[in-house]
Amino acid sequence: MERVHVFLARHFWAQLLLGVLGGAVLVQLLYPQGSFGVVLVRTAVMSVGGVCVALAMRRKERRAAGSTDGLISLDRRLRTGDVPADPAERQAMRRLVDQRLHRTRHRRAALAFLTCLFVGITVLTALTAGPRQTIGFAIVTVVFLSWMSYAGSLNNRRLHTMDAALGGAPAGLGSPATDGTPLAHEAVPGPPHRMP
Question: Can you tell me where the transmembrane regions are (predicted)?
Answer without folding.
Answer: 12-31, 37-57, 109-129, 135-152
